[in-house]
Write a structure and sequence with these properties.
Layout (H helix, E strand, L loop, with lengths): L2 H6 L1 H11 L3 H6 L2 H6 L5 H14 L2 E8 L5 E12 L5 E10 L1 H49 L21 E8 L8 E8 L4 E6 L5 H8 L7 E6 L2 E2 L5 H7 E4 L10 H5 L8 H10 L3 H6 L17 H15 L3 E5 L7 H14 L4 E5 L3 H4 L4 E6 L2 E7 L3 H5 L14
Parallel strand pairs: 6-11, 6-12, 9-10, 10-11
Antiparallel strand pairs: 1-2, 2-3, 4-5, 4-7, 7-8, 12-13
């Protein structure tokens, strides 16, 4: 061995002898002496790495060794394998460090991390179960509260069905109504709307227009007084019969998370394709349906979220056309349409439903001007009952707006 190799071997001579109990000289001159103390499980790997190091000229590897007393230690060997002229591995000069403590620490850390990860996974699973359980309980409470609800508007024991060819005259007598914890909101001493009549109702916000509309559709019952349709108290009419022939459309119509077709056929399951397409065309929806990827089968999402405000209103109006009601109450049901679109829709409705009584709530003077009779509601009372065809006269009505430039939706 050359002098420089002897100096470079000084550290490994001491460290290796301390670790293995073997002489370092035998390690330096015969690498197989190191292999003899390599842990049996690492032996094949060690041989491979030693001879690979001899080819590359450098060895940097961790091995498990077994001391004579049977103790297993970890050693980090860094050195320079040397070969003779025939290529045989002669000796390795370098260092051998005992890294057992570090290795054990690494293993302990890895074990702790694995245990922590397992514990965290179990805790996270329990947390998710708890969250889901709370959601289930909340849903159960909501369902229970829904089942506990009882409608205030119910069928009378003497309820009678009405035929479609009945005289659908509406008459209100001494109506009083107020919402809970409010004073009297509405007081109508008397009002008569004849069969087939077309009436517009206007007034300031909060005047009671929508409340009046809901009373005529029997969404609510008055606190006192009576509403008669065809001479029969509305509370004595079978609710299904009333819903079939009295159609109430609010500003935000009720549409279902289904297809366009299912929403239309909700009121008339047997409606033909031709009737459906005609109703859609009259409400200005033909282009929209043609551009939908699945046409009438296109799903419109919860609350018809896939449609704009105006498109939702047009679809609800098309459904009303298919229903063919005897009384149609539009509670700002065209408010999301521009003035021209609204006028076209109302003309088509009046042309199609010629026997229907129209009651339309609106602020637009252009809309009010389309109706021969206008009721002005203010402070819960009918303040004016105007019969006019003059837009100039309409513009002076309280609550009527001249601004018909665009749609708010």
């Amino acid at each position: 061995m050359i002098e420089t190799d002897s100096k470079r071997a000084l550290y490994i001579n001491q460290a290796y002898e301390t670790i293995t109990g073997c002489t370092t000289r035998s390690f330096l001159e015969n690498p197989s002496s190191l292999l003899e103390v390599i842990h049996p499980d690492d032996h094949a790997h060690a041989v491979s790495r030693f001879y690979e190091g001899a080819k590359t000229g450098y060895l940097d590897e961790r091995f498990r060794i077994r001391r004579p007393n049977g103790e297993t230690r970890w050693v980090w060997v860094r050195g320079f394998p040397d070969r003779d002229a025939e290529g045989n591995l002669v000796h390795v000069v370098g260092t051998a460090l005992d890294i057992t403590v570090q290795k054990q620490a690494e293993e302990q850390i890895a074990e702790n991390l694995a245990a922590a990860k397992s514990a965290w996974a179990e805790e996270e699973a329990l947390r998710k179960v708890y969250v889901r359980t709370q959601k289930v309980f909340a849903s159960i409470r909501q369902v229970q509260s829904a089942f506990a609800l009882r409608p205030q508007v119910v069928n009378s024991s003497r309820a009678a069905r009405m035929a479609k060819d009945e005289t659908w005259q509406i008459e209100l007598r001494q109506i009083k109504f107020a919402y809970p914890r409010q004073e009297n909101l509405l007081h109508i001493p008397g009002l008569r709307i004849g069969p087939g009549e077309q009436v517009a109702i206007t007034g300031e916000n909060g005047a009671g227009k929508s409340t009046l509309a809901k009373l005529m559709a029997r969404i609510y019952d008055p606190l006192s007084g009576s509403i008669a349709i065809g001479g029969l108290d509305i509370r004595e009419i079978d609710l299904k019969s009333l819903r079939d022939y009295v159609c109430y459309l609010p500003r935000d119509p009720v549409l279902f998370n289904g297809s366009v077709l299912s929403n239309l056929r909700f009121v008339r399951p047997g409606a033909s394709q031709e009737e459906i397409e005609t109703a859609l065309a009259e409400m200005g929806l033909s282009t929209l349906i043609a551009n939908l990827p699945h046409g009438l089968s296109e799903r419109i999402g919860p609350g018809a979220c896939q449609l704009s405000g105006g498109e939702r209103q047009r679809l609800a109006l098309a459904r009303a056309c298919l229903q063919d009601p005897r009384i149609l109450i539009l509670d700002e049901a065209t408010s999301c349409l521009d003035a021209d679109g609204e006028a076209a829709v109302l003309r088509n409705l009046r042309s199609r439903l010629q026997r229907t009584t129209f009651i339309v709530m609106s602020h637009r003077s252009s809309t009010l001007g389309m109706f021969p009779r206008i009721l002005v509601v203010g402070e819960g009372r009918i303040q004016e009952d105007v019969r006019t065809h003059s837009l100039t006269a309409v513009s002076s009505i309280p609550g009527a707006s001249i601004a018909d430039i665009s749609s708010p939706c």
